[in-house]
Specification:
There is one protein chain. This protein is an alpha+beta fold and about 170 residues long. The chain has 2 domains: about 80 residues, no CATH class; about 80 residues, no CATH class. About 50% of the residues lie in helices and about 20% in strands. It has 7 helices and 6 strands. A 4-stranded mixed β-sheet has the order 4-3-5-6. Strands 1-2 form a two-stranded antiparallel sheet. A hairpin with a 2-residue loop joins strand 1 and strand 2. Helix 3 runs antiparallel to helix 4. The longest helix has 16 residues. The protein is flat, with a radius of gyration of 23 Å.
Length: about 170
């Protein structure tokens, strides 16, 4: 009895998902459907395989028990989201501000330190954690995201604004 149904990029959760499934299959024109439930995955020993990987890596104690319990409950695929949420909560309790910085090329250690100093002074936070990412598509400059605030000084966005301004003139 599935409680989570995934059709391409669409997921259906809970027992109610079964009632909408026939209509969705017809709407998409599928001829066949394949169902996999978490309980079925347990038959293949997913939890034991996850624990074997942890043992080989030397991970013990509470971390091993937690990950083993999550895997035994058929939620191993949710571990990344759980770890991300945990690290965000930990940073918040420590008074850290996490900043996502996107650049076109990798930033040097000196540039990261200068950016860290600038962000600390602007944000008034003693601890700033920078999550640096590289996306060549922004062409140059930086995109800085702090919480829900976004500061975009990339060349890509400047070119887009210039393009919009030129369309307005014409």
């Amino acid at each position: 009895m599935p409680h989570r149904i995934i059709l391409n990029e669409t997921s259906y959760f809970g027992p109610g998902s079964r009632s909408v499934l026939p209509d969705e299959i017809k709407r998409r024109g599928f001829k066949k459907a394949f169902f996999v439930t978490d309980k079925e995955l347990l038959k293949f020993g997913v939890a034991q395989k996850v624990l074997a990987v942890l043992d080989a890596a030397g991970i013990k104690g509470l971390t091993r028990s937690f990950i083993g319990t999550v895997a035994a409950n058929g939620r191993a695929r949710e571990l990344v989201a759980m770890a991300t949420a945990f690290l965000a909560e930990l940073a918040s309790r420590r008074g850290e501000t996490t900043v996502a910085v996107t650049s076109a090329v990798p930033l040097s250690p000196d540039q990261l330190q200068q950016l860290n100093d600038s962000l600390r002074s602007v944000l008034g936070s003693a601890k700033v954690s920078i999550d640096a990412r590289v996306e060549p598509e922004i062409l140059g400059g930086l995109v800085v995201k702090v919480g829900s605030r976004l500061f975009d000084s990339s060349i890509r966005s400047k070119l887009q604004r210039l393009q919009l301004a030129m369309k307005g003139v014409a």
